[in-house]
Specification:
By secondary structure, this protein is an alpha+beta fold. It is built from twelve helices and seven strands.
Amino acid sequence: MSRIHRVAPEFAASSTPAFSGEARPGRRTSAHSAFWIMVRRVTLLAASVDVAFLLFFLVVGSPLLAWLNLASIAIYATAYVLLYRRRNFPALLLIWLEVVLHALVGTMLLGWDSGFHYYLLMFIPAIVVSGSGRTVILPLLFLFLVYLGLHALAHFIGAMAPLGDTALLVLNVFNVSIFFCMAGYTARFYYQLVRKTEERLRELATSDTLTGLSNRRHLLDLAQQEIARARRANEDVSLVLADIDHFKQINDNHGHDAGDRVLVHASQLFREICRTQDIVARWGGEEFLFLLPGTGKAAAREFAERVRKTIAATQVGHADQPITFRLSMGVATLVGWEHLHDAIGRADRALYQSKTEGRDRVTLADHPARRATVPAHSDEDAFPV
C-alpha cells in the first residue's frame, strides 16, 4: 500500500538570497528580489559574451574593440562583486554605464548594422520590473531618447571603423542571437517566478500552516469531486473524525509549543498511514477529518483503529519530557445520496459518544434516520455532496 497521501506539503522557503541591499526592511517583494537575482546571473552572462567579443575582434583585426571588451569584462566583474556584497545601486549604475557606452562605441565604430543597439532594449523589462509607478517613466524615457539619438547619429555619421561585409554579417547575427537568448531567458525567468508564486498562493489557500495538511475548505472541495466519482462507480465513501483527547491539558501543563509539536507529530503519522486516495485535513483546533474513498463501514473502522493504536503507541519529546496522547474517533459511511455535511454530523456525534464513554476509542455512527433518496435529475451537477 502506498504511503503517499493527497495533502498539501509545507512550503519550503527559497534558499536563494535576495539581492535587495538598499531596500528598506519590510518593503521587499518577490518581483524585486527576483530582479536582483536575475541581474547577478545576467552579469555573468554578459561578461561571457564580452569574452566572445574579445576573441572575435582579435580574429578580425580590430584590437581597439578587443581592448574595449576587456574593459567591459572588468566592469562586469566589479558589478558582480558589488552585487555579491549587496551594493546593488552602484552595481546597477556600472551595468547601465557599460551597456550604454558599449552600444554607443560599437555602433559608432561599426555602424547601425552591427546590432549593438539591441542591447539597449534589454533594459526595458529590467526597468519595468525593478521600479513601480512613476519611477519607471524617467528611465524608460531616457532609454528611448538614447536609442533614437544613437540611431540618428549612426545614420548621419556612418561607420567610423567599418568591418568587411562577412565580418559585419557575422557580428550582426551574433548580436541578434544574444539578444534573443537574453530576452528569452528573462521571459522564462519571470514566467517561472509567476508559477512559483501561484503555487505558493495555492498552498497557502489549501493547506494548514502548522501541520501542512489540507485545510477544511480544501477538503470540502476535494470531497465533492471524490464523492461524485465514487457514486458513479457505485463505491462506498467513509469519514473518520478524530480529536486529540485532553489537548487543553497538554497546552496547560507543557505549553503551547508542546501542543503544536503534538499536532505536527500526529499529522505526520496520519500521512504515513493514509493511502494515496485518502484525504486528511486539519478540521479545526485539535480535530482532524479523514475522507476515505472506496472504503466501507468495516474497513473504515479498521482504519480508525489502526490510527488510534498508532497514536497511542507514540510519544512526543518536549523539553526532555515525553508526552503521550490519545485519540477519540467517530466513523460514518455515506448512505445513498446523503449530503456530506449530514455524514460529518453523524461522525461528530459518534466522536462525542467516544468522548463520553471514556475517550481513546472508535465509535461507529448510527444509521441515518431517513435514507436519502436519489434526486429526480440525473445531471451530475445536481448531486448533493
